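Data availability (excerpt). All sequences and predicted token strings are deposited with the supplementary files. A representative entry, GMC family oxidoreductase, is shown inline so that the format can be inspected without opening the archive.
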Amino acid sequence: MKIRDIRTLPAGTVVDTDLALIGSGPSGMTIAREFAGSHTDVLILESGGIELDPAIQKLNAVENIGEPGLRKNSPPPHRGYTGEYEWLNDIQAFELRNRILGGSSHTWVGKCAAFDEMDYACRPWIPQSGWPISGKELAPYVDRAGNILNLGPNIYDERLRKFLHSPPEDSKFDPALLRPFFWQFSYSRGSAKQPMRFAAEYGHLDAPNVQILTYATVTEIRTDDMAGHIISLEARSADGSRVIVRPRLLVLCAGGIENARLLLASDRQNPQGIGNGHDVVGRYLADHPRTVLGYFPEDPAGMIQERFGFYGLVGSEKLHYYLHGLALSPRLQEEEGLLNCAAFVAKTHAQDDPWSALRRLAHRSSKSALNDIMAIASSPGMLTRGAYSRLVKKRGVLHKFDQMRIECMSEQRPDPDSRVSLSAKRDKLGVRQARVDWRISAQEIASAARLARTISSEFARIGLPRPNLADWIAADAPENANFSDMAHPAGTTRMGRSPETSVVDENAKVHGVEGLYIAGSSVFPTPGHANPTLMVVALAVRLADHLKSRLGQ
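Structure token line:
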């Protein structure tokens, strides 16, 4: 792939290409990868550069009029990042996006899981649920996506146990209430400790037919007079450089906020924007509301860490680790009208945790080498047990912790009043900012509370330490529920068969607009509870196959 900077191009440059991709994150880079070495000319337009530029990041600013706001008597919302990612907690809601080569993969931690079969289904207790494509149809694309993401087998339920080197003990939870759920992590092929960064992994493929244009922020998409066909797009940089691109086909791969924003802002032919004849663009905004369900004051003999830690896969050429958690059973969701949600154990490591100290020294990031050496020297037993756990049992190590908590991420019900629209404020390129009104319904709150109480009662029944439930759950005060966004915006250009309730069809083409497609989580009709990247990449692979047929490949 050839990388060029828009600021080096001659004034008035016009580029003709077969396929233009707006955004170089997992969606854009995956589609480009699928075309690598073909006869199709591909152009990726990336708003940022090779390094993160704070001035470019300011283009992410939104006018936030919705959640997450402070609720009465509740603490400030918090995304739960710790360690080297802790700074991500401080970024404003819906502004945690990366304008850089590789997009959102620049700061993600690699957490992946596939959707459950029920996520695709039309569920009577969730209005506007149901995908126009099935999980069975998507399964081969999920497997192809797993290969791209360097993952192990795409198995995330009880069936995974037989593949794990030393699986967690079967805790005998009531299957009518709870079910095991696992996540795995996408790591670079070059480093088993570095989450996959798409720029490093795929940005340098031998693909002379693919060009990447950096510092090229797309400010407008232009259609013909009837707004039924894509004609061109304009990309600009902060220094005034400008290029016009004329693609045969165009795919928006800019994320759940920017995809909708760009359609709405491209209002030259239609004041409602492109593809918005039924006022659906930007609606149905969802994320993964995150909250803390409870805290463990102690962990006798590592009982919680042992059962809800990391577990290595057996018989694989590469070592893949899976994180064990719990989710509400499908039966309970249906009986009580609940949303799909899952919980996992998270820890804040103590300053004198020997494994954290060892990592800091190894990475030369220690603030006090003497203190870290003392932490290591004072805990030889913990290091020995940890080494045995990692090397022999293929499990995660036990850590000293200041806080151990149960965290939850929930699906959201589709809500047309939860939305992205345009603000009167403009960014420095003159484009109206996104106005975000994210709404969390009583159904999300009730689902998280039910999961917490179910975990607590089941832990007590089988003899595990019970967590101290979060104050709002213990007091049955849903009005004090505290949620944060997880920078997983979805649904704003949702997929469906009817243009009255969706923006793109089952092939991700914008209804009524020839040549315009959308990739990424913005097309999810419902977002599930799982981190979105695996499904984003799977849909991108599927879309690439469709585009190949359109372009005669």
